[in-house]
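Suppose you are handed a protein chain with no further information: no name, no annotation, nothing but its sequence. What can you learn? This example shows the usual starting point.
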Amino acid sequence: MEIVLRNNLILIKTDFNTLNSVWMKDFLHHHSRGMLFLPKAVLVFRNETLVEVREEFLKKLSAYHTLTKEYSHEFFLRSMLKFDTQPIRIELNKLQEPENIDVHLYAYDKDTILISLDVPNSWVMSYFRSQLEVYIERGTDISLVVDLSDYNAKARLDRTLNKKHILHYQIKYSYDNHFISKIYSDFANFSFGDLCKDNENNEYSQFYTVLECPIGASQDALKKSYKKLTKVYHPDKIFSEQPHMVAYYTQKFQLLQEAYKALKV
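A reasonable first move is to predict its three-dimensional structure. Written in structure tokens, the prediction is:
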């Protein structure tokens, strides 16, 4: 394990076995609502209601880390507590072959869907809960029932399913030919074509995702979302001079233009 104390975060590089240790998983599952899943990493933001949980985690982290170090646990803990308000980034330090996880989607109707796994996987389920929590009606360790009656819920679902890589898990979504037509039945005049066959490689489904709109959204909805997002991601809006941030905003702005041009009638 390697721990780096930066000005803006605590960086923890570790292996997947440590990430799955009881004390580590307990901390992360407490913070599932304030956790951002990234490829090979998770970013945990401070939660004022979980201060004691965070402090207990830092104590265990310091004790674990200093077992093989020359400096003392107490000294290192004091150093980490100085960064108490900063996010914690935990990333895998070993490249492992991604493990495939099958996730099944089933639509009861346009307002309710079932997300299910063949076997329990707490990390994948934590990802879905972190993204869809306000819309989850009920769930188990292998399934979630999600309420899509809110328009924003369908846009959130699109963004959620667009991510295929969680830590070292590669997610493969499967659903029947009626899934998309059911949840987007409000857009019955839209021709779904082959979207049901391979949504991962269909560029038009990706354009809707870029514009944060459900597949088949009206021209007015596309235009409204396009205008809102281009205001947010216009390169002139960025205050950071860091090259990677400028590149990110520029790329996002270009994607928005490409998506709107492709879907505009």
